[in-house]
Amino acid sequence: MLTPKVNYLNNKDMLLEIHRSKSSHCVFTDPAFHQYDLILPSIDKINIRTIAEAKRNQAKRIGDLNYVTRKKEGEKIKQAECEIDYKKILKEKVVFRIMTYEHIPLNNVRKKNPKTEADRREKVNFPPFQHYKFINDELVCVGKSHWKGDLETGHFDKNAGQITDTLARMMIKLCERYATRGNVRGYTYNDEMRGQAILQLTQIGLQFDESKSDNPFAYFTAAVTNSFVRVINIEKRNQNIRDDILEMNGMNPSYTRTGSGEYENALRRSDDYE
């Protein structure tokens, strides 16, 4: 199956690929239950207000999808004509994503001084969750992250899935575009900075929390920026050590050290003259 070529990056497509990547680490009683309508910190937060909010989110998603589909078919239609009344959606149709470590095995030796629930559990590549929905007026778990096999008889598996090819292309595209910026493209170790940034994104890319933000582009860009700055600082520190060794042995240091020294001497002479 051919993956689409990534020509540009936007939050909508990135959110979709992050969701698909996380879903590959999950097991659902029905494939349709992968799509959640609202993220909550615990099952106790499911009430009349949050159910209504989940209905509104689902109504908006269905309306937007209907509008895009009919536009592609060449139909002249306004988006308002595709809107759905959320009150007509049954509560049995909505799915809640509950952030929980309940199904993640305990590991009390991973951290010497555990401070959070995550420190007491096995390490996972993104915050775990479960999906719940109403069945016969009762909340039932219909999906688990980092899981393999049946929901009842299956077992924890943190390596059950992988990121999608499209998300990987997005990460590479973002790093390549950042590497052409004027403040970093002139470094001789530009390839090393780009490679370090790609590695960083593969490690923390799925840690993006959709419940706190809908801007993964900013999250990824901040990670790339930190990776580039980290490599620059390491290279500068190594260059200073190399210049110190050259000066100790009576040899000429790098042009950077020579230029900075001449600049400092010029400032010192101007101060003495005044």
Key descriptive features of the protein:
274 residues, 43% helix, 2 domains, alpha+beta, two-stranded antiparallel ribbon, 7 strands, five-stranded mixed β-sheet
Number of β-strand runs: 7
**Compute the gyration radius: what is it?**
26 Å
Which of globular, elongated, flat, extended, rod-shaped describes the shape? elongated
Strand order, largest beta sheet: 1-5-4-3-2
- pLDDT < 50 runs, ≥5 residues: none
| Helix/strand/pairing category | alpha+beta
Could you describe the largest sheet, including whether it forms a barrel? Answer: 5 strands, mixed
- The overall pLDDT average reads 88
H-E order? HEEHEEEEEHHHH
Summed up, the helix count is 6
Distance between the termini: 73 Å
Strand content: 5-15%
Portion in helices: 40-55%
State the assembly state of the protein chains: single chain
